[in-house]
Please model this.
Amino acid sequence: MSGFQRSETDEFARGARALVVYPELPGRASVGPEARLAEAEGLALAIGLNVVRTKHYRVRSPRAVTLLGGGQVEEIAEMGRDLEIDLLIVDAGLTAIQQRNLEERTGLKTIDRTGLILEIFGERAATAEGRLQVELAHLDYQAGRLVRSWTHLERQRGGFGFLGGPGETQIEADRRMIRDRMARLRRELEEVKRTRSLHRARRQRAPWPVIALVGYTNAGKSTLFNRLTRAQVRAEDMLFATLDPTMREIALPGVEKAILSDTVGFVSDLPTQLVAAFRATLEEVISADIIVHVRDISHPETDSQREDVRQILRDLGVVDDDLSASRPEIIELWNKMDLLEDERREDLAIQSARSENTLLISAETGEGIDAFRSHLSALIARGNELRTIALKSNDGAALAWLHARGTISKQTVKDDEIVLEVSLGRQFWGQFAKQYTFLEV
Model:
């Protein structure tokens, strides 16, 4: 580690004066430039940067050396001098050459969208697994660049140092170290994955349905999670407030127990390195019985955000290309209804009522939450089996067990027997058969 020194500029991640630039490239605009700049500014604020100005450029012919045109680069350099900018954030993917050339021609330290998102993840990941995943993603991203010092490898906490540091001269030593470190991280993550699989197998044997919350970052998943579970998961009006997966028990009407999972928020153009690194985490979504897609219905780009989330679900194999029926049931939860104007709210209430698996709620105020909980119970009950059984009339324990976990639609007493029509989950029938004596009628 002797070749690695901490840079004086590593603290750029807090309070640096930043210029955010969004280059609109041909054929790649899924949302308007204003919305894209607003999101990029939100990403910068999430890492504690001071965004002094944002700027949109239409790039008709991307340059291999700088991505942006020569006049645009000159204008950025001038803004950097006039506004005393410390950091240029380009809301697009940059090659190593483009990044280096932009730094040389503007005089500004430069990072791209991927680097910024990885920096946020590096600071926010709280669990050991999250740290491993983000570091692997970071090394994969930087492996072909080697335009930064690898100070993150010496750090105990915080981000990963994209925002500072001179070029490291020991290129080959760095490359060997990075390859070795990535191999070690992959081995550690493979062990985590095996442990997770064992936990999941145990959950499947213990027959509790798993409900996974997904959605665009800042859609309100963690606020909903806290309301449903009475947990205290970090929930802030900030992009990527939640990174590490959290699972808690949830009580639902007529359901003995269910597991609710809160997952990392998605964004458009989520770095491929992060999708790959967090695949183990997102396996909780793949294996869920019900997926709840939480949408910020008050956001002006809510439809585009929906498509971004759906695309990631496609990439994970949860839904197919035409968005037809998927293995897990998917509910769309239109959140933040408390932020809507009355007319818009009424229109959306009518629209959601037309769709079986669309509900309008406010996780913040609690409006619509009871209806949502009942809807989850109904979906879980769909997998129930209806059987007619007979119990000994004095077997109060078995009767109480059935009442607690299922629905008894009919009950008749005959001599020393009670004949029941019971709707119960298949997994619970197996449990019941192991614990109690009964006859099927």
About this structure: Residues 171-205 form the longest helix (35 residues). The first strand starts at residue 17 and ends at 24. The radius of gyration is 26 Å. Confidence is low (pLDDT under 50) at residues 1-11, 147-158, 164-168.
